Fold:
Amino acid sequence: MSSVVSQAPTGASEAGIAPHAESNAVIKPGYHPRLTNEDLAPLKKQTWGQYNIFAFWMSDVHSVGGYITAGSLFALGLSSWQVLVSLLVGIVIVQIFCNLVAKPSQVTGVPYPVVCRAPFGVLGANIPAIIRGLIAVAWYGVQTYLASAAFMVLALHMAPGLAPYAEVTKYGFAGLSALGWVAFMVMWVLQAFVFWHGMDAIRKFIDWAGPAVYVVMAILCGWLVWKAGWSNIDLNLGGIKFQGWDALPVMLSAIALVVSYFSGPMLNFGDFSRYGKSFEAVKKGNFCGLPVNFVFFSLLTVITTAATLPVFGELITDPVHTVGKIDSTTAVVLGALTFMIATIGINIVANFVSPAFDFSNVAPQHISWRTGGMIAAVGSVFLTPWNLYNSPEVIHYTLDVLGSFIGPLFGILIADYYIVRKQRIDVDALYSMSPKGEYWYSGGYNPRAIQALVPAAIVPILCVMVPTLRGAANYAWFIGMGLGFIIYAVLNRSDKA
Structure:
């Protein structure tokens, strides 16, 4: 290989590189325009420390969706300790996989779609990029809708006269009420505002957003426990239905659910690890942000959820509804703003940054990082995510199909970097369309990656769609990842095709 790197480029002068003025990009004269812009090129400086990665995961975990997911695990019929074991095992698996996928981007300073050029070819990388980007568009819309629900709670509390405008039957369009449209577009604009100011603004936002959510959640939890009395709180939300070995299948499903929930951000974690100042800093940030943070957040969530039963007379799993039940303007305002901020945080890190890089990768000279993100934002409106979210069956199938595609992409990427290429990447070749380039294949697409992707995706999709195979649907991500990894590694036992 030529120009094989073991660490990211740290300065233009050291490598004789001529980056664009006032840019953090390292762009060499030989980089092909069809593959390069300042957003996709290797970074000149990597400045994120372990706290920044920790804060990233806090923003990813501290959301309405994360709250409901954690609470739902405690309602599976397992005892509290069984749920905690499942949570811990699941999140440790996520941590391990995130470390694996983080390394190629951290050592090269390039985002996820550019790293995908190694296994899929310099043009074939658009396949995993577009798949991940489209998935992010759908979830961007859903998360924006969840954030708008908090805005509506706040609006109706402050101005009860707006209630008629919250009814779809009276003032509605495309399945959403007039007030719902206002709330959705307010959240849409706020997120776009943060995103438009670039990755540094995003870093600053998530650095304080995650801790701020923790503070308010702790206050909410403490108040509910004080009102309920600790002796009146039962942490086994659904009652204990499974004992001994009978609980094992349920625990395995809970573990798989945790991994599937994080599968999207896990796949394109390289979009963030590329900013890490060292791989050690990324690993330490992952440890604090995943096992430590997620287990503590889950405990806080289940205590809060369990306390709603004695305080309000009903079990409330949605934190926005919990806040809306409190007879205090200060509490409602603080709570609603908190969950709006929390959802903005996860939406930006999980569903805005990814398609920004992914869509930019399709046509770098025409689609910048900002343009790619706005394509995703606009597309999310036309999906009418409120209709998607209000159908539990659609959401369930979406989660399973999500894992069906993301798993194989993850497996192929990991197999290529660790098994096939032995952790060696030619950075210059990632931006070259020369027939002699390391990652150039006929037409720009690596046929072996596609041959691995198709069956690895079809099998888990069948598990989702065929009723007799539905028992394996919870493990769609693992099945797809394993098949993608094995098939790609076997196909590449010989030299490059």
In short: The radius of gyration is 23 Å. The chain has 20 helices and four strands. The longest helix spans residues 279-312. The beta strands are 4-5, 172-173, 176-177, 425-426.
